[in-house]
Amino acid sequence: MQEGTAELVLGPMLRYAGTESATFWVETSAPCEVEILGHRTSTFAIEGHHYALLLADDLTPDSVTPYDVRLDGKLVWPPVDGRPPSVVHTRNNERHARLVFGSCRVGDRQPTQLGHEWPEDVKQVGIDALWTYAKQLQRSEMEWPDAVLLLGDQVYADEVSPETREFIETRRGKNTEPNEQVADFEEYTRLYRESWSEPDIRWLFSTVPTVMIFDDHDVHDDWNISWLWVEEMRRKPWWEARITGAFMSYWVYQHLGNLSPPELEEDTVYPQVRAEQDAGPLLRHLAQTWDHESAASRWAFYRDFGGTRLLVLDSRAARLLSDGRRQMVDDDEWDWIVDHSSGAFDHVIIASTLPVFLPIGIHHLQAWNEALCTGRWGQLAANLSERLRRAVDLEHWAAFNRSFEQLCDWLRTIAHGTESAEPPATILLLGGDVHCSSVSEVDLAAGRSARVYQLICSPFRNPLSQKERRIVRATGSRIAAKLFGSLAKMAGVTPPSVSWTPIRDATFENALGELVLEGRSASATIRRSPREGEDPELLVAEQPLTLADASHDQRRPGAGSAVV
């Protein structure tokens, strides 16, 4: 290998930025030494692909530092394309944070030159809200965020673009299972490259820290919806390569960069991978274990932003489904989550790809369906309910009713505070997945406590059809609430122990959410993607919601309520 022959395939991605440290992730075309801000590290290999995670730990607090990337001494980043330089914004224990969040983003190519009338394909999927946000940030029209939270479906393994479909056909021919879907690790690498290579998205990820978690489409629609589904998929001849490739690619493209420097020091997989000449066999073995044993991995993680604790929950791979047990999160991981939610925080943010509090009619429907699937009304009803569960995606927290109530009890514990620490001003639950955006206030019936809100923002780019929107509205109506509530009661389902009220009706367009936290104050804004005829490089913001106001005593009942 001649010096300077490696090229940058993906990245750089700024995955973490703290007070004095930052981590950068890259994929390269060949083995090489990566240099950023005077720090160097060598790449590691996974089945012909080369990656590096570089830690810079001597940055100046509260600074803005431009950086470049060199591979074996050759300058490969930034490109000369008129975009601002990539920089690292460090923090300095400030009690403020600005966090951008959302989910569900198809990787199809984003048109950059649009006239007054859009082509039909653009009308169908709309403008990528994350791309528009990047354009505005480049023009300094937005306040700089501390992180972008990507809450699931970074890639669509079961709904590939025409370009990826062509690659699949070239590689393994037509009509080979899984037809027009990703089959293995190699094809997953293609998906990530497609999704993250768009120049403006690539610039955004190079200069704003990202945290991310997988959802079903990162693997397969209905992933881990039930034990019957798991058994059925494991009988398919192509499934093992698919699920193994999904976990391998998730570890290297998403999870590795989620780890803060202290978590990296404790991680046991990363040193093993770096020690291998080709870590493919090692990761392949681990991926098979991760698929079969939820306790063999922990994908949940946390980040701190001043006085705010962000906890990101894994609501897919951590599920328990076999041996008659049905839990959203296994016991060991749940204990870890609870342990990391205690402390003196201004705000606690709980991010899960799946919303916890659905419209009450849909909540009752999912809880009723779960009861019937267990045989509450006999085997025929159980079989029909399993079909319904998969057909309309009845797989959220309400469909794991025991876990739903466990989470509600946990929220009450956080909201009460402790003898040594007052409760946080707010508990903010973030979710995606459902392809609509909404805000709800949650009443824990816990007396004096923190304010609790759920904010859903989805999709970045993958809107529901008009028919699907009508179905969502119908199942969330008052009539549906009465109907499904009665059915759930007849099936012996206990009503939820908490109540929740929408304070911002659901919208269905591509969108991006933003949280602004100042001390014990909090506000949220949902920004929708532009419509046909509007400036494609300008997000349209709804009126911000005040979630907490530090001028009020948060322990006084009624203080800090949401206002429009």
What labels describe this entry?
564 residues; alpha+beta; Transcription Regulator spoIIAA; 7-stranded mixed sheet; 16 helices; 24 strands; 23% strand; globular; disordered C terminus
Q: Determine the strand fraction and express it as a percent band.
A: 15-25%
User: Structural class per helix/strand content?
Assistant: alpha+beta
CATH class placement of the domain at 301-564: Alpha Beta
Q: State the helicity in percent bands.
A: 25-40%
Number of strands: 24
Radius of gyration: 23 Å
Shape: globular
Distance between the termini: 61 Å
The number of distinct helices, counting runs of at least 4 residues, comes to: 16
Q: For the report, how would you describe the main beta sheet?
A: 7 strands, mixed
CATH architecture call of the domain at 301-564: 2-Layer Sandwich
Would you identify the CATH H-level superfamily of the domain at 301-564?
A: GpdQ, beta-strand dimerisation domain
Q: What is the name of the CATH topology of the domain at 301-564?
A: Transcription Regulator spoIIAA
Mean pLDDT rating: 92
Unreliable stretches: 553-564
Secondary-structure map:
Blueprint: E1 8-17, E2 22-28, E3 33-36, E4 39-42, E5 44-46, E6 49-56, E7 64-66, E8 69-71, E9 74-77, E10 87-89, E11 96-102, H1 120-125, H2 129-138, E12 147-151, H3 162-172, H4 185-196, H5 199-207, E13 210-213, H6 227-234, H7 239-258, H8 261-266, H9 269-275, H10 280-292, E14 301-305, E15 308-313, H11 331-339, E16 347-352, H12 360-373, H13 379-391, H14 401-416, E17 426-431, E18 437-443, E19 451-456, H15 466-475, H16 478-490, E20 499-507, E21 511-518, E22 521-528, E23 540-541, E24 545-548
Parallel strand pairs: 11-12, 12-13, 15-16, 16-17, 17-19
Antiparallel strand pairs: 1-2, 2-6, 3-4, 3-8, 5-6, 7-10, 8-9, 11-21, 14-15, 18-19, 18-20, 21-22, 22-23, 22-24
Helix pairs in contact: 2-5, 4-7, 7-10, 12-13, 12-16
